[in-house]
């Protein structure tokens, strides 16, 4: 149901691969709430996904861009302003990839060329994106940038390997750039730390299924779905959250503040079930 929360607003959605993607659901909801959007992804990801289907559903144009390339990001923001007829009001950064994880290389044996790619693609791409938008003055005042993160930026999850480091850098960039962009243009920059989510990327992590169930049992509300994360992103793009800046916002059903649940204790056989 539309509340016209984003009526008259313009934005860029990155990272929509298929219907399981959080970014895909954000694009649908942004369109539903009255926004005009441009979709973007790396050319290789576009070949693997179904972004043309999403473009048709949201009446959006697609501008391919490698988020590690300042030149291509400059083209993205320039073209997006031409297509949408003005500056951006919101941007979703939903970009992450680790060659080390894809090749099942353990954290203690990381390939450092792969490691640098993980950081560049998953974190520095946000800084480059913000820097380009800042220099082009491509964001309207009181605009909103949201980056998707994960609690492994603060706590150790062995299976998340170098992506944990990348997410820590990502969240730091949100705080630092959020200060400078906030001072200059009242543009706010925040990260959302989402529950384990059954996306194409998330499901590719070794042991993901077991951990998904573990987190679901720990969280008082259960794992937050991709659909509900998209709702949260829309609220962060709207004027209702215009004073929220430089925050890492947990969207995880309470997982981040729960030490242990009764369900987990019962599973471990430490307390009687009767």
Architecture (CATH level 2) name:
3-Layer(aba) Sandwich
Task: Give the low-confidence spans.
Answer: none
C-alpha end-to-end distance: 43 Å
CATH class: Alpha Beta
* Strand/helix succession: EHEHHEHEHHEHEHHHEH
Shape: globular
Count of folded domains: 1
Radius of gyration over C-alpha positions, nearest whole angstrom: 19 Å
Assess the beta-strand content as a share of residues: 5-15%
Task: Give a count of the beta strands, DSSP E runs of length 2 or more.
Answer: 7
Structural class: alpha/beta
Q: How much helix, percentage-wise, in residues?
A: 40-55%
Mind telling me the CATH superfamily name? NAD(P)-binding Rossmann-like Domain
Strand order of the largest sheet: 3-2-1-4-5-6-7
* CATH third-tier fold name: Rossmann fold
Largest sheet: 7 strands, parallel
Tally of contiguous helical segments: 11
pLDDT averaged residue by residue: 93
What does this structure look like?
The chain is of the alpha/beta class. The chain contains 11 helices and 7 strands. Helix 1 packs parallel to helix 3. The protein is globular and about 60 Å long.
């Amino acid at each position: 149901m539309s509340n016209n929360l984003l009526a008259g607003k313009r934005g860029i959605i990155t990272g929509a691969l298929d219907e399981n993607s959080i970014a895909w659901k954000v694009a649908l909801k942004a369109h539903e709430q009255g926004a005009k959007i441009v979709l973007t992804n790396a050319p290789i990801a576009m070949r693997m996904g179904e972004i043309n289907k999403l473009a048709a559903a949201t009446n959006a144009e697609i501008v391919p861009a490698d988020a590690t390339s300042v030149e291509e990001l400059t083209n993205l923001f320039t073209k997006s302003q031409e297509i949408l007829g003005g500056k951006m009001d919101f941007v979703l950064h939903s970009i992450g990839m680790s060659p080390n994880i894809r090749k099942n290389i353990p954290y203690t044996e990381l390939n450092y060329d792969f490691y640098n790619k993980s950081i560049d693609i998953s974190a520095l791409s946000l800084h480059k994106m913000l820097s380009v938008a800042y220099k082009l003055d491509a964001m309207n005042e009181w605009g909103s940038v949201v980056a998707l993160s994960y609690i492994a930026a603060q706590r150790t999850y062995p299976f998340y390997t170098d992506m944990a480091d990348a997410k820590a850098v990502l969240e730091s960039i949100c705080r630092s750039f959020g200060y400078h962009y906030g001072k200059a243009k009242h543009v706010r920059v925040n990260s959302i730390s989402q529950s384990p989510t059954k996306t194409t990327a998330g499901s590719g992590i070794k042991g993901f299924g077991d951990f998904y169930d573990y987190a679901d049992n720990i969280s008082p509300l259960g794992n937050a779905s991709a659909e509900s994360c998209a709702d949260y992103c829309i609220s962060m793009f709207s004027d209702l959250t215009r004073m929220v800046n430089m925050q890492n916002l947990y969207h995880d059903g309470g997982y981040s503040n729960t030490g242990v649940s009764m369900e987990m204790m019962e599973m471990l056989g430490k307390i009687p079930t009767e």
